[in-house]
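User: I'm new to structure prediction. If I give you an amino acid sequence, what do you actually give back? Let's try with this one:
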Amino acid sequence: MIRRRIGMSLIAAAFACAAGTAFADYGTDRALIEDLQARYLFALDFGDPEAYANTFAPDGILDFGWGEIKGREAIAKFVADGRKRIEEARAKTPPGQRPSVGRHAIHNIVVKIDGDKARSVAYWSHMTSGPDGRGGVDFFGHYEDELVKVNGEWLFARRRIYNEAVPEWASQYGVNPVTTPSPPPKYRAPSGQR
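Assistant: Good question. You get back a string of structure tokens that encode the predicted 3D arrangement of the chain. For your 194 residues, that looks like this:
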């Protein structure tokens, strides 16, 4: 009888450890995914093309409505081109004014992990400063991400960006992207090409 109780206790302890390990693995993976999302935004906001591109898998895809940008090299070029436009605009700041600065925030993050793949949905907002340095929210939307774990590192396999300020890139009201993935944002040519 005592052997049976000890045996049952050991089995229960093994199940508890396994459950604890599974929960710890989810917690660790979620923390790594949230870290990835933060590094992505810091790289974008500070114009770091290499760090931004390295948040994507080598064949990763960025899709926000200008068409799919595929692969790290093309993604890095996209950010480098954006940085050049921002630097040109900042150089034209009138004397006595502060150059405009933009910053993103990510929140309400939902993560579903399945082995070395994951799906994430999150809100984002963007704030831009004015000539006095003060600013406010000017854009907002949500991300829908497909992620892949490569050599222990979570990366974006595909990131879709939905922006509520641009009709073609807005979400479908009434369809919850947490439970039903959205169709890709509709194509809208960059302003210089319309």
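You can read the tokens as a compact description of the fold. Here is one thing that stands out. The first strand starts at residue 56 and ends at 63.
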